């Protein structure tokens, strides 16, 4: 058993973490007590995340930094801005939310990200990367114009620093010279291993302490010279020599200092005394500062230390060894009991990645691009199989899309694997660089639909924003087999940008995959699916898009079972259509529906209603009315995500809340049927 488990089992009943109920109490602790507190916090994070799931490795790595920030600064008066925000667990525990920590990421529980609606200590919303420095610059400008007195601190990782937005903000900050403190938490990791020239520069910083030693000696000489009787010209010459030496020597933070941001570090991020000392040293300075702190992702939990990528995010009951319950007074240490883990089928991400690997042998010009989500989207496997045809561009979604455009224009077949929530960050590039020239770039949009991470990560907007762009084809498969065939067919036939969206869930029909078997399909044509009452006629048609096909099938099964029980026979079930393309629409099927005996049409999509698939049907119906003004059209009912930001929670709960679960759909169909 890991040594960590023994530490947990010897946890003292009167622990420091139980005694710290407010930030003033934290500030009264000694360095030794803070070190003990850091250990206890790590134990509590592991224990709780084994129940709730969450981001493990990043939070274990940032314990001392968070403690030091709250020890030195005065939140919420001082503004602490988290980049990404998933590394906020320690911050939440210290700012009055420890008693809710067991509800982390649960529906109606504590958010897994920073959100000012949850606490005044959360200075701004955080969910996406590379935003904190821009926010800090904006807040510092406002502070100075409003004549306020407080510190603005941006906490950003080395992964976030690879994002273009962060570099733009640092460039502007150096120009403005505002009082902003940047804490660079350098653990060499984001969701995937960091790549790029800037990442390599950060590694070189850590490898050399040469300049710091020289700098200290120069300071010692300066102190002695201050007391020496030197004339003004000689003192000026000494300052010029110092400046010249600083310019010639490759200093650890020379890039930042050239941009106008003072650099200090690197500092051991797990030495709480050293971190506090470094923060105190810059606390009262009124020009831009960057403190470079080195941490280990997964610190204190052996499995996460050894594989930080695997333990970046964990599911409930997946950690070992941990305690199943916290130790309380008069209780004995509870030994770890492994929780049974149900076998899970393949996810859509895994299906997509495997299809890419198989198709690479057939398509020698195919390349795959991802913006720092190689592990999360599964395409890291493609990178291992075809390293020369795989490009992880770091947290640079805009660059990923425009690079893909350049590749397509030059004759390659680029596939951009990207989360729906992150594709939003590259909309100008999608329009300007890909769509206008009608370039055959394929977008594999992962995490499309509702996800458990909350408002900042919901993949519900991609249909609306992509459907509005000319030259685009927008697809969603009903199952794993169709996903593979869509990818295969798009690589062979697409003459313009094509997006294939799929949810973050277990793939339907994922066990029906035959390796290296693909079928060329006309994905712009919809599919009329069989039902148990296909010989009967119905005046209702359900147009289900992507993941909603399976939900619709479940709903029809519920109706069938209920009908059998009540009357012994099945009433006519609605027509079910796999409307796999929301752009273009299958006008042949739509014309048949509108000119036949269909009286009601129900559209279903796991995305926002505004501008989505249902809106496309309504727009089409409006245009048809111009051509057939006397035609009685079917009534159209659009089901999807309402005009609101969706909170965190399990996908099945969120679907039910939006009326997109099988039971809700079945009840709606029965209600519509009864009105006919």
Give short descriptive properties of this protein.
676 residues, alpha/beta, 7-stranded mixed sheet, 5-stranded parallel sheet, 28 helices, elongated
Descriptive notes:
By secondary structure, the chain is of the alpha/beta class. It is 43% helix and 13% strand. It contains 28 helices and 19 strands. The protein has a seven-stranded mixed beta sheet, with helices on both faces. A five-stranded parallel beta sheet has the order 2-3-4-6-5, with helices on both faces. Strands 14-16-15-18-19 form a five-stranded mixed beta sheet, sandwiched between helices. Helix 6 (63-72) crosses helix 14, helix 16 runs parallel beside helix 23 (480-493) and helix 19 (397-409) runs parallel beside helix 21 (427-435).
Topology readout:
Blueprint: H1 3-9, H2 16-19, H3 23-27, H4 31-52, E1 54-55, H5 57-61, H6 63-72, E2 79-82, H7 89-97, H8 132-145, E3 152-157, H9 164-176, E4 181-186, H10 197-207, H11 210-227, H12 232-248, H13 254-258, E5 262-268, H14 272-282, E6 289-294, H15 302-306, E7 313-314, H16 348-360, E8 366-370, H17 374-377, H18 380-385, E9 390-392, H19 397-409, E10 413-419, H20 420-423, H21 427-435, E11 442-446, H22 462-467, E12 473-475, H23 480-493, E13 498-501, E14 527-529, E15 540-544, H24 548-567, E16 575-578, E17 581-583, H25 587-595, E18 600-608, H26 613-627, E19 635-641, H27 651-657, H28 662-675
Parallel strand pairs: 2-3, 3-4, 4-6, 5-6, 8-9, 8-10, 10-11, 11-13, 12-13, 15-16, 15-18, 18-19
Antiparallel strand pairs: 1-7, 12-17, 14-16
Helix pairs in contact: 6-14, 8-9, 16-23, 19-21, 24-28
């Amino acid at each position: 058993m890991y040594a960590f488990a023994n530490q947990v089992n010897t946890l003292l009943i009167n622990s420091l973490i139980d005694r710290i109920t407010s930030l003033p109490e934290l500030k009264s602790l000694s360095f030794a007590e803070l070190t003990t507190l850091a250990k206890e916090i790590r134990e509590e994070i592991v224990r709780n995340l084994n129940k709730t799931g969450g981001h493990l490795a990043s939070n274990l790595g940032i314990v001392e930094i968070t403690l030091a920030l709250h020890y030195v600064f005065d939140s919420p008066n001082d503004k602490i801005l988290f980049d990404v925000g998933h590394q906020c667990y320690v911050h939440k525990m210290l700012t009055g939310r420890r008693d809710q920590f067991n509800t982390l990421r649960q529906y109606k529980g504590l958010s897994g990200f920073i959100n000012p609606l949850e606490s005044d200590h959360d200075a701004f919303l955080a969910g996406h990367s590379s935003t904190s420095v821009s926010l800090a610059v904006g807040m510092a400008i406002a502070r100075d114009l409003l004549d306020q007195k407080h510190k603005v601190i941006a906490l950003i990782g080395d992964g976030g620093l690879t994002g273009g937005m962060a570099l733009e903000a640092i460039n502007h900050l150096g120009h403005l010279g505002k009082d902003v403190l940047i804490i660079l938490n350098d653990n060499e990791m984001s969701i995937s291993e960091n790549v790029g020239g800037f990442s390599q520069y950060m590694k070189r910083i850590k490898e050399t302490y040469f300049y710091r030693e020289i700098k200290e000696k120069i300071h010692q000489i300066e102190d002695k010279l201050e007391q020496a009787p030197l004339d003004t010209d000689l003192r000026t010459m000494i300052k010029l020599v110092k400046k010249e030496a600083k310019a010639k020597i490759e200093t650890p933070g020379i890039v930042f200092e050239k941009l106008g941001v003072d650099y200090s570090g690197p500092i051991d991020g797990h030495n709480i005394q050293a971190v506090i000392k470094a923060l105190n040293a810059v606390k009262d300075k009124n020009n831009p500062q960057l403190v470079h702190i080195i941490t280990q992702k997964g610190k204190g939990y052996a499995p996460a230390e050894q594989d930080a990528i695997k333990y970046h995010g964990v599911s409930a009951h997946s950690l070992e060894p941990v305690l199943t319950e916290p130790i309380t007074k008069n209780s004995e240490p509870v030994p770890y009991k492994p929780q049974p883990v149900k076998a899970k089928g393949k996810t859509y991400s895994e299906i997509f990645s495997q299809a890419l690997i198989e198709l690479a042998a057939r398509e020698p010009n195919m390349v795959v691009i991802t913006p720092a989500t190689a592990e999360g989207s599964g395409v890291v496997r493609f990178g291992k199989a075809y390293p020369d045809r795989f490009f992880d561009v770091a947290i640079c979604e805009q660059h990923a899309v425009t690079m893909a455009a350049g590749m397509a224009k030059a004759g390659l077949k680029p596939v951009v694997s990207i989360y729906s929530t992150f594709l939003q960050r590259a909309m100008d590039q999608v329009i300007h660089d890909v769509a206008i020239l009608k370039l055959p770039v394929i977008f594999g949009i992962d995490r499309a639909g509702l996800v458990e991470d909350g408002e900042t990560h919901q993949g519900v907007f991609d249909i609306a924003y992509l459907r509005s762009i000319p030259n685009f084809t927008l697809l969603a498969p009903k199952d794993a087999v169709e996903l593979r065939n869509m990818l295969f067919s798009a690589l062979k036939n697409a003459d313009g940008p094509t997006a294939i969206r799929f949810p973050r869930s277990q793939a339907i029909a994922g066990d029906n995959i035959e390796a290296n078997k693909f079928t060329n399909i006309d994905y712009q044509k919809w599919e009329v699916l069989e039902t148990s009452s296909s010989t009967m006629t119905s005046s209702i048609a359900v147009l289900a898009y992507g993941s909603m096909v399976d939900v619709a099938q479940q709903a029809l099964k519920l109706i069938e079972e209920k009908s059998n029980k009540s009357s012994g026979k099945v009433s006519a079930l609605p027509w079910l259509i796999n409307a796999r393309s929301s752009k273009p629409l299958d006008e042949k099927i739509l014309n048949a529906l509108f000119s036949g005996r269909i009286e009601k049409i129900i559209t279903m999509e796991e995305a926002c209603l505004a501008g989505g698939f249902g809106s496309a049907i309504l727009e089409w119906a409006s245009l048809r009315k111009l051509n057939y003004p006397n035609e009685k059209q079917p009534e159209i009912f659009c089901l999807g995500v309402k005009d609101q930001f969706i909170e965190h929670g399990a996908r099945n709960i969120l679907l039910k809340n939006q009326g997109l679960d099988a039971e809700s759909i079945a009840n709606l169909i029965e209600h519509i049927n009864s009105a006919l």
